[in-house]
Amino acid sequence: MLGFGLSIEPQLWALIFVMIRIGATFIAAPVFGNVSVPVTVRVTLSGAIGFLVLAAHPIVPPQQIFAVSTILSAAAEALVGLALGFVLQISFAAPMIAAEVIGGAMGLGFASSIDPQNGKSSPALGQFFSIMLTLLFLSVDGHLILIDLIVRSYDVLPPGAAWIGIERLKAIAFFGGYAFLAGLLLALPVGFLLLCLNIVVGMLSRAAPALNLFAVGLPASLAVGVVTLAIAFPTMGDYMLVIVREGLSATENLVLG
């Protein structure tokens, strides 16, 4: 079919074509897209899931490899995969926003470390939230749900007609606002108390100008922030589960409409 005279070639080409969407999803999705996950592991998982897709769906790849229609079909597959992973990545950005709000109020904005999600420097508190959200995502089998959505996406968006419509792109854009809303709600318990503390410290600095503001305000902010985080973290953990479910729900809506 494609030349070279090999009988296994059509099946191999079909598997490679299916792996485009799956691999693009793993590049953009959290957990799978971590820089700590080797490329070999991603390719192996893409191939294994590709076998499942070929067994469940009669995928017919383009007849010619080097053709404009084939390039457009591959671009459409990559777009669908990136969209699936990007929606989940948006929900994983909410803890980073919450960490920026809380860390700035606590005076921990200078404390940063390498985030295993993307390999870049991020606030230490944000890395802690990100790890907790990843553990919650795995605890509710979010990775298995994502794989199931990838396989089911071939029913709704089959190869050859996989361009995402305007309505789906609009839904992705509007879901981006949810990351800011969820981040602010996640930081609300701690951020509100720190705001009240800053107001009190500001009143004290006006009442007693000779008072060393940094000697009093910074230790108080750190102490109140740590205690409030310890008290409010069970509630914050429950809301992180809500964030995970909202991200999976948005991904399902993207696939099923």
Write up what this structure looks like.
The chain is mainly α. The protein has one domain (9-256). The protein contains eight helices and two strands; from the N terminus they run ααααββαααα. It is elongated and about 80 Å long. The two termini are 35 Å apart. Residues 1-7 have low confidence and may be disordered.
Given helix and strand content, the structural type is mainly alpha
Described by strand count, sense and barrel closure, the largest sheet is: 2 strands, antiparallel
Average predicted confidence as pLDDT: 80
* Global outline: elongated
**Low-confidence parts:** 1-7
Count of individual domains: 1
Let me know the number of strands: 2
How would you spell out the order of helices and strands?
HHHHEEHHHH
Structural key phrases:
257 residues; mainly alpha; two-stranded antiparallel ribbon
What can be said about this structure in brief?
The protein has 257 residues and is mostly helical.
Topology at a glance:
Blueprint: H1 9-28, H2 39-56, H3 68-91, H4 94-106, E1 112-114, E2 121-123, H5 124-139, H6 142-156, H7 166-207, H8 213-256
Antiparallel strand pairs: 1-2
